Amino acid sequence: MCGRFFLISPAERLRALFRLKSVPELRARANIAPGSAVPAVRHDGQGPAFFMPQWGLVPAWSKDRDMALRLKNARSETAPGKAAFREAWGQRRCLIPADGFLEWPGGKGPRQPYGVRHAEGEMLVFAGLWERWYDPTQTVPRALESCTILTTAARGQLRSVHHRMPVMLRPEDFEHWLDPATPAERLPGFMVRFPEAQLTLAPFPQALNDSRVDDAALLQPAPMQEAAPSQGSLF
């Protein structure tokens, strides 16, 4: 899955990577959580365009926003057939850039986040879907644009931390992924081409467990936190 990620690269790097006409100045963010607005790229009818959807998809037919946090991720294997994602899969795909993401293994003991990055410092780009929703309770509804990150079975060393990981795309596939004219049967092929051997995995500071902590200085390998030994009875 993908529950948090970080983006500290400047706007110019995004502009060059996606061949965008313009990108607003972005604040470095070390702990992006669902519910917040995230930088993303979509096709605007003429080419790639920058936008800032809310992370957590709200289907166009939804009566309210309540399901947004439940739809922060979508399983790539089943998304095309799910009512919440079916139309976006065909017409509203997006790209979500990151410098890396955080993942937590299960099990007992201290909750230890792991940071995943590209071994050569390249940006990671997640495959996503986006939607536009209007609040039916408002007299003059305002559009809410939201997105979800597609996930797939974890590969390589990531399997040691979690059984799912975000779908990551190669730059040569960006244009095809965004283009609504790309046949649906070609999409699964783009989602398996990213070489997982290019990813690095390391334990990160436990301070990042708190989504309110947003310090880029913490995005560094940290010693593993050992579980505290249980204390026996004194008598």
Automatic annotation (TrEMBL):
UniProtKB keywords: Covalent protein-DNA linkage, DNA damage, DNA-binding, Hydrolase, Lyase, Protease
The UniProt record lists the keyword Protease: yes
Keyword Endoplasmic reticulum: no
EC assignment: 3.4.-.-
Gene3D superfamilies, per database record: SOS response associated peptidase-like
An MF annotation (GO) of this entry: hydrolase activity
Transmembrane segments: none
InterPro entries: SRAP, SRAP-like
Similarity annotation: Belongs to the SOS response-associated peptidase family.
Name of this protein: Abasic site processing protein
